[in-house]
Amino acid sequence: MARFTLDQSFDTGLPKIDQQHRQLVALINDLDEAVEKGTAKAMIGGVLQELIRYVGNHFTDEEALMMRHNFPGLPMHCQEHDFYVTRLSQIQEGLLDGEDLGRNTLDFLLDWLSSHIKGTDMVYAAFIREQTGYNKD
Ligand SMILES: [Fe+2]
């Protein structure tokens, strides 16, 4: 699959968050490429581990930001994050059990992230931009 990049329609207007989103997508692309090339499972596991680590840090940063701004949608947002983290650890367990990382799983990782950014992240980002008077346009 061709490498996916986030165009401007994915910009939340929060530069640090946007940069993290781009890095997340780059890691999913790396994982995709490793699987497509038939890379050894141990190497694929390493890329997945890095993705899991980065996702964890990114979600922690977002949740801290929402908390700092008293964003009322925080609990629901956290539930979405928890869902992704749980799925990622199930995928990791599967890989350790010798399962292949399939196309459906790779598509899920990217699809979930893109719709989360465009839907759920945009809501808190708009709230914070409003509060801080920061206009992304
Ligand atoms: Fe988020």
How would you describe the overall organization of this protein?
The protein has helices spanning 15-36, 41-68, 74-96, 103-132. It is elongated, with a radius of gyration of 16 Å. The chain contains 4 helices and no strands. 17% of the residues are buried. The chain has 137 residues and is mostly helical. The protein starts with 14 loop residues before the first helix and ends in a 5-residue tail after the last helix. Fe (ii) ion (FE2) is lined by residues 62, 77, 81, 116, 120-121. The site of fe (ii) ion has 6 residues, from helix 3 and helix 4.
User: Helix share of residues?
Assistant: over 70%
CATH architecture: Up-down Bundle
Radius of gyration: 16 Å
Largest sheet: none
SSE order, as H and E? HHHH
Oligomerization category of the chains in this entry: single chain
Task: Please state the average pLDDT score.
Answer: 94
Low-confidence stretches: none
CATH class: Mainly Alpha
First-residue to last-residue Cα separation = 32 Å
Instruction: Determine the CATH superfamily.
Output: Hemerythrin-like
SSE class:
mainly alpha
CATH fold node name:
Four Helix Bundle (Hemerythrin (Met), subunit A)
Could you give the count of β-strands?
0
Strand content: under 5%
The shape is elongated
Which tags fit this structure?
Four Helix Bundle (Hemerythrin (Met), subunit A); mainly alpha; binds fe (ii) ion; 137 residues
Give the helix/strand layout.
Blueprint: H1 15-36, H2 41-68, H3 74-96, H4 103-132
Helix pairs in contact: 1-2, 1-4, 2-3, 3-4
The chain binds fe (ii) ion.
